[in-house]
Amino acid sequence: MDLAFTEEQEMLRQTVRELCAKHSSPDVVRALEEDERGYSLPFYEQLARTDLLGLTIPEEYGGAGQSALENVVVYEELGRALAASPHLGSAVIAAGVLLAGGSDQQKKEWLPKIVSGEATFSPAWLEAGGSNGPDSVRAAATNDRITGEKVLVPFANTVDRLLVYARDGDTVGLFLVEPKDVSLTRVATIGLDAEFNVTLQDAPAERVADWDAWEDASHDALIALAGYATGGAERTLELSLAYANEREQFGRKIGSFQGIAHPLADIATEIQGGRVLSYEAAWTRAHGKPLGPLAAMAKMYTADVFRRATKIGQQVYGGIGFTLEIDMQLYFRRAKQLELQWWEPRYLERVIAAAELDAEKPYINVY
């Protein structure tokens, strides 16, 4: 396994970093917290123009045909900048579901539109009081119509289609639903992003795949989220180090005190460990090797490290770290939301435990 990035992959990283510097500065992130759309449309259009929406979509549908390795590079940079966009729901999850389970007609209709940015999607999968697995799905589909409620659906007010998970007889299906056919209620989140509860009452729906397609697409989403968390943690550490080397107390830089220096050293080590784990998952996925629980491990661990990095950052800053003028609070709030909203830890622990306890041979020994 070679985890060294190529010159082209490093150029990709630089391209995304420059885009984020222009379109997702801390001031932009703050402004989007009060924006109805919740993301910068010029930024998303620029992602389309630079082929980043179709990065992992096959060339036959207009994409670049790249792999999870390139995608994790992109998501590290998006995480560093806390960039908000429907990229994950559209270019990773919806595209992955269509590729894994959609019909030829559905692929030809929607994948080129995802690549161009003409169509955006958001997964409506979480339900109140449920977990992240199929057993928690209570929304019901009958004769291509869905009744039920979904929570915490990002950008539901602006996307072209919702990707809704509903119980169809004895199976769980994935359906496309138009937002105009549902009721939306904006909800307050710790990240102050554009999220909605969705009420479906006999809403027309088009079935595109089954739960297996969602499971396949979720591997790419988990790896992408691991990259996002790693990038966010890395930037959090940079902010903490800069302040520790600037702030003085008792005539010394506070970074010279063990109570500051040692936690920063510990979290720096853990960030690097999480980075390697996310790269291993991306490399394994890119090369078609058995992925096992690697994607779940990568997301669970990196999200936990991101959260703890922001906690240490708040301690380095002291009381001012929580004030709205300080960037650290932006990372602190989003780290906690990322950990809980997209495949929360308890679900990921069950996935990992099953790979170790229920399999004929534990995954960690396959090598």
Structural overview:
The protein is of the alpha+beta class and 367 residues long. The chain has three domains: 7-116, Acyl-CoA dehydrogenase/oxidase, N-terminal domain (Butyryl-Coa Dehydrogenase, subunit A, domain 1, Orthogonal Bundle), CATH 1.10.540.10; 121-210, Butyryl-CoA Dehydrogenase, subunit A, domain 2, CATH 2.40.110.10; 213-365, Butyryl-CoA Dehydrogenase, subunit A, domain 3 (Up-down Bundle). Helices cover 51% and strands 15% of the residues. It has eleven helices and ten strands. The strands form three sheets. A four-stranded mixed sheet has the order 1-4-5-8. The chain has a four-stranded antiparallel sheet with strand order 2-3-7-6, with no helix packed on it. It has a two-stranded antiparallel ribbon with strand order 9-10. Strand 6 (183-187) and strand 7 (195-204) form a beta hairpin. The chain is globular and about 75 Å long.
Low-confidence region ranges? none
Give the total of domains.
Answer: 3
Structural class: alpha+beta
Count of alpha/pi helices: 11
Shape estimate: globular
What's the N-to-C terminus distance? 12 Å
List how many beta strands DSSP finds.
Answer: 10
Give the percentage of residues in beta strands.
Answer: 15-25%
Output mean pLDDT. Answer: 95
By CATH reckoning, the class of the largest domain would read: Mainly Alpha
Percent range for helical residues? Answer: 40-55%
Q: Radius of gyration, Cα only, in angstroms?
A: 21 Å
Q: What is the annotated CATH architecture of the largest domain?
A: Up-down Bundle
CATH topology category name of the largest domain? Butyryl-CoA Dehydrogenase, subunit A, domain 3
**How would a textbook summarize the main sheet?**
4 strands, mixed
Sequence of secondary-structure elements: HHHHHHEEEEEEEEHEEHHHH
Q: What strand order characterises the main sheet?
A: 1-4-5-8
CATH superfamily assignment of the largest domain? Answer: Butyryl-CoA Dehydrogenase, subunit A, domain 3
